[in-house]
Structure formats: structure tokens, C-alpha cells
Design a protein that fits this description.
By secondary structure, the protein is mostly beta strands. It has a single domain, classed as Sandwich (Jelly Rolls), CATH 2.60.120. 6% of the residues lie in helices and 36% in strands. Strands 1, 2, 3, 4, 5, 6, 7 and 8 form an 8-stranded antiparallel beta sheet that branches. Strand 5 and strand 6 form a beta hairpin. It is globular and about 45 Å long. It binds calcium ion.
Length: 197
């Protein structure tokens, strides 16, 4: 449960850590300025250099949400901070909450990866989500429809339709693993990686 300073506690800890409600936020205002912790492999300089194909890289920008668990520091920017121990979480256990990333300009998008929080009671049950894109934040178009998602891996990848160009990418959690006797699952994402050029 101790984030970060020396080790690789994250990879297993994300699933087995006791989950939502059990964690405290790591720091408060990490999003603005400074050098983010780079324990997400997609943030390392070598991540895009090893790809011999198109000049594709992880894209960053500013993340906002309609709902944030502010009391625990689980704000929207945590999906972009390259830290696998920090996450965005909605402020309640309802579906329909979203996180929007402003890429600071229109980019050609290839695919995304979303790293969910999976509390123990939700392991093996899918999160349902959709991804919409926009060039101006006013009119959004469906790009990736996982509203009948069956994948239950913690990190999931999905392709944008070819020739998708957008500045804003909005992921909405439209369905949550149902409550069990052990606990309730909230919309909660460690990292949202958008790749493009
Ligand atoms: Ca994070």
C-alpha cells in the first residue's frame, strides 16, 4: 500500500489492495507543473522510440471530470500523471460519470489503453464504457463503444476508427461491476493512455 518510493508495489497492489475506499490519495496537486513520476512504462522516452512504425506516442493534456473523489485526492488528473498508484475515482458509486482529456490540439488518434481499478470483489466482471471524441468540446461523436464490454483484464486496449482526429476524448463509464456482499465498485481509473500522432 505504500506508493511509490522504491519498488514495484504497484502492479499487484492495484488489484489486491483492498480497493475503493481503502486508499488515501498520494499527494494533492501533482497535476500542475513539475516532473511527474514515471513509473508507467508508456511514459518512458523509450516507449515510442521502440515502435518502428508510425510516429505514434502517448498523448497528454488536461483531464477533467464531472465527478471526483476530492476528499481522497482521486481527481481527474491522476489518469495522466504516469503514476500507477494514483487514480481518478468518481464521487459516488453510480454509472454515467466521465473523464475528459483535452489534448491541447487536434491529433490523429490510433488507440487507447485504460487501466481500471479492480477491487477484489469486482475481479472478473467487466466495466462498461464508451469513448467519444470531439474537435471543439461541443459536439461529440462515438468512437469506441464498449457498452457491452466483456473484457475483464485490468488494462484494456481499444482502437479508434481509422482517421479519427480529435482534440477532446471523453470516456464515460456506463456500467459498473454490480455490488456484492464484499463491496461496491465505483468508476475508477489509474491511467488513461491515448496514443496517436
Ligand atoms: Ca495515475
Amino acid at each position: 500500500m505504500v506508493p511509490g518510493s522504491g519498488g514495484k508495489a504497484n502492479t499487484g497492489g492495484a488489484i489486491g489492495s483492498g480497493g475503493q475506499g481503502g486508499k488515501t490519495g498520494v499527494g494533492g496537486s501533482r497535476n500542475t507543473g513539475g516532473t511527474p513520476p514515471a513509473n508507467d512504462p508508456s511514459c518512458l522516452p523509450s516507449a515510442s522510440a521502440t515502435d518502428s512504425g508510425a510516429p505514434e506516442a502517448r498523448l497528454f493534456g488536461t483531464a477533467t471530470s464531472d465527478s471526483e473523489e476530492i476528499s481522497k485526492g482521486n481527481t481527474a488528473g491522476k489518469v495522466l500523471d504516469c503514476n500507477l498508484s494514483t487514480r481518478w475515482c468518481a464521487a459516488d458509486n453510480k454509472a454515467g460519470h466521465y473523464v475528459t482529456i483535452d489534448l491541447d490540439g487536434v491529433h490523429l488518434l490510433s488507440h487507447l489503453e485504460v487501466m481500471w481499478e479492480y477491487p477484489l470483489w469486482a475481479v472478473g466482471v467487466p466495466y462498461m464504457y464508451i469513448v467519444e471524441v470531439s474537435v471543439n468540446s461541443l459536439a461529440y461523436t462515438m468512437a469506441i463503444d464498449k457498452s457491452v464490454n466483456t473484457e475483464t483484464t485490468q488494462t484494456q486496449s481499444a482502437d479508434f476508427p481509422s482517421a479519427t482526429s480529435a482534440r477532446y476524448v471523453r470516456l464515460t463509464v456506463v456500467g459498473l461491476p454490480p455490488p456484492t456482499a464484499s463491496g461496491v465498485t465505483w468508476a475508477s481509473i489509474y491511467e488513461l493512455r491515448i496514443f496517436g500522432e
